[in-house]
């Protein structure tokens, strides 16, 4: 089977790896693989912390994906010899003041009601786990099964794995899905060349709605949601594990890596396709991070970037066969793209190769969202 995949972020790359390993002839189309939200993301594998109430189906999907990550990362590292920065040493969530602590308490009750293991901690216990936390931190929660991965290592490893199984990368922008006889038949590139395929996967993140050729009602309703992220560096031990905080109602997270990088994120802004870094965005992140970890101002500044998450109307991904035969959609992962990579690759591989969606993906198929023609 010939499969064309539009978009080489982690979702397109991981699916390319999976279907190429099962014998499909894969063409990946992207002018700059792994350079969108993938390159900006911190890589937290924390299914509960960014959920809103009422998003239990998404939580189940996130938990399923987190639970597949260990084997997924091990298989990828073995297949390529490349590191992914995978770690599963837990997530610490801390509260800055009494209101933030009440918020954390609600979160703990929600998790416990769903049978998710979580440990409530006093401020002192939080500081024992993370000695650099501010003395005023009121308390926290430890989610022992959460973790992180380094998206900037994950993407090249996935590309290498896909290529190792025969996938071909075309570094060009996809302009249109070719539709013939009422079915997707390939992709037309911006330069005019055509790539014919039996199946097309549309995994272009927030740009998934921009392609020509698709009939009305097929295009997934995704929009860009901007996130600004800061990267710092430390040469001395600073933070041991992923740490999130709520500071006077504003969420903030810090993801440490073994090489000394500390990622601080993230803003959430509805600004269209705008990736400018703003003084206000940086100030808010550093202000809140410093409240939780005063020593952060000593760290070396490394980088600041802004990415575009693919948001969907219900915050959940859009994955599975489209109403147009031959087309499969894989976008809308919003704040969860890195977390949902293993399970999305499984769902999308089955959709591409067999035309079906496994039970774990049943609540996320495109028919729930796409507007009627
Ligand atoms: N999941 C991290 C973020 O969207 O900022």
From TrEMBL:
Pfam family, any one: DAO
Where is each FAD dependent oxidoreductase domain found? 2-350
Spell out the reaction equation it catalyses: glycine + O2 + H2O = glyoxylate + H2O2 + NH4(+)
* Sorted UniProt keywords: Oxidoreductase, Thiamine biosynthesis
Asked if Transmembrane is a keyword of the record, the answer is: no
Q: In which pathway does it act?
A: Cofactor biosynthesis; thiamine diphosphate biosynthesis
Superkingdom of this entry's organism? Bacteria
Listed SUPFAM superfamilies = FAD-linked reductases, C-terminal domain, FAD/NAD(P)-binding domain
Keyword Cell inner membrane (UniProt):
no
The cross-references to InterPro entries, in alphabetical order and at most eight, read: FAD-dep_OxRdtase, FAD/NAD-bd_sf, Gly_oxidase_ThiO
* Molecular functions per Gene Ontology: glycine oxidase activity
Enzyme Commission number, as recorded: 1.4.3.19
Q: What is this protein called?
A: glycine oxidase
Q: Which organism is it from?
A: Actinomadura rugatobispora
